[in-house]
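Mods, move this if it's the wrong board.
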Amino acid sequence: MDRAISDTKPICHVSGTDVAALFSRLAQAPS
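Not the wrong board. C-alpha cells:
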C-alpha cells in the first residue's frame, strides 16, 4: 500500500508539471 502511494505521488507531480508546461506553451502560441 505505502509503495503504491509512493509511486503514484511522483507520477502525479510530473503529470501536473507537464500540464502546466502545456498551458504555458498554449498561452504563448500566436492565436
